[in-house]
Design a protein that fits this description.
By secondary structure, this protein is an alpha/beta fold. It has helices at residues 22-29, 42-52, 66-76, 95-105, 119-123, 126-146, 166-182, 204-213, 232-245, 262-272, 319-323, 343-355, 368-371; strands spanning 33-37, 58-63, 84-89, 109-112, 151-155, 188-193, 196-198, 218-220, 226-227, 229-231, 251-254, 260-261, 283-285, 303-307, 313-318. The chain contains 13 helices and 15 strands.
Length: 384
């Protein structure tokens, strides 16, 4: 009988081991109060775990998922007793509660990882995607501005580049809003982009593992489907590195090596299980799912990549940066003088872009008029 060996995604990844400037990260993090949203997720939990190595004063672990949040707290307890861990079972869309979190704890750094991320699922629930990925991000960004957080690090995705999905477009809108807020804020707003995190919840790795254990078949959408992959540890190390190096306004893209064909990944995982592809475990082609692309883009035609002082982090310089209007007013104030940026109108522009695809399942969010309740400029003085 063939002995099963554990599959290591590093066998296929070409990205080198992450270079960490630990002293620079320590100077930013040690002794600070830090908020991590989406703390119970794959990225948020690893960010929190790595932060503990630098002994911050306090980490606020905020997530809407009760059981994963409790498991995270039990896992992290005792790693560094000098750091106070404060769990918050809360929704980032609850503006009053979020304001209370900021007012009570005065976080100095925010890592914003909370998001809806499953591409095909969100095609059927665009309103929820926009509520969480756009409105939720807007609330956390606005509060970071108001309470003068020093550094705000947004966890984005390569799917925000030339987005073909509701998820990708919602993350791109959030990126644009964050860049706008940055222009007239004392807070440094930083965006990080990277590809698929192997082994994260809902990703292809755990799905293939389950299918192999069940005897197959392994379901793959298309023979030419390929994705960029990173391990959770690699991605979060570069998130911390980006937060320490960024000044504000940057979009950082991580070096993820070459893209990997999903069918090659499937074959490697079958072989690692001591089985033979197509003989012991069949491959079933199921076709592209809603919102998916064969290949992900790293930059648009209007972007250029600029080297930084870290070999695995590139700065995405976009033409959008030069023309983006600013948000100068307190977003929580009822006496706003002259609105410069309105997220509602940004949403509407993306909505019409998706309507043009003539796919009734892809009307970006037919509930868009409900979002105009947030519009405080009434179309006057808005960036559009």
């Amino acid at each position: 009988m063939t002995k099963e060996r554990k599959f290591q995604i590093e066998q296929l990844l070409e990205a080198p081991q992450v270079l960490l400037h630990k002293e620079q990260i320590s100077q930013q993090v040690t002794g600070k109060t830090i908020l991590v949203t989406g703390a119970a997720g794959s990225i948020g939990s690893e960010v929190a775990k790595q932060l503990l190595l630098y002994v911050p004063k306090k980490i606020l672990l905020l997530d809407v998922a009760e059981i994963p949040l409790n498991k995270l707290c039990l896992k992290l307890e005792g790693i560094h007793k000098e750091t106070e861990l404060v769990p918050y079972l809360a929704d980032i869309k609850d503006e009053n509660l979020m304001q209370n979190v900021f007012a009570t704890h005065q976080p100095e750094i925010v890592y914003h990882a909370a998001a809806n991320k499953h591409v095909p699922l969100l095609e059927g629930f665009p309103y929820q995607a926009i509520q969480n990925n756009v409105l939720g991000t807007k609330i956390i960004a606005d509060l970071s501005n108001v309470f003068q957080v020093k550094t705000f690090v947004f966890i984005s995705t390569d799917k925000a580049v030339n987005p073909s999905s509701v998820m990708g477009a919602s993350k791109r809108i959030a990126e644009q809003y964050i860049q706008s807020v940055n222009q007239e804020s004392a807070t440094g707003f930083i965006v990080t982009r990277f590809g698929n995190v192997f082994g994260s919840s809902g990703s292809v790795g755990p799905i293939f593992s389950r299918q192999i254990k069940a005897g197959g078949p392994l379901t793959i959408t298309h023979p030419e489907m390929e994705r960029y992959f990173m391990t959770t540890t690699q991605a979060c190390e570069l998130v911390l590195e980006s937060g320490a190096m960024g000044k504000g306004g940057e979009i950082f893209m991580f070096d993820m090596g070459n893209p990997i064909r999903i069918v090659d990944l499937a074959h490697q995982m079958i072989l690692a299980a001591g089985l033979v592809p197509e003989l012991d475990i069949k491959i079933e082609w199921i076709g592209l799912r809603p919102g998916e692309k064969l290949q992900e883009d790293l930059i648009t035609v209007n972007d250029i990549l600029i080297a930084t002082n870290h070999p695995q982090i590139k700065w995405v310089q976009s033409s959008f940066n030069q023309k983006m209007p600013s948000i100068a007013q307190n977003p929580l104030s009822s006496t706003r003088k002259k609105p410069h940026f309105c997220v509602t109108h940004l949403l509407s522009k993306w909505w019409f872009r998706f309507r043009d695809k003539n796919d009734t399942n892809r009307l970006f969010f037919p509930e868009l008029p409900r979002f105009f309740g947030w519009c405080r400029c009434n179309g006057v003085g808005c960036c559009w």
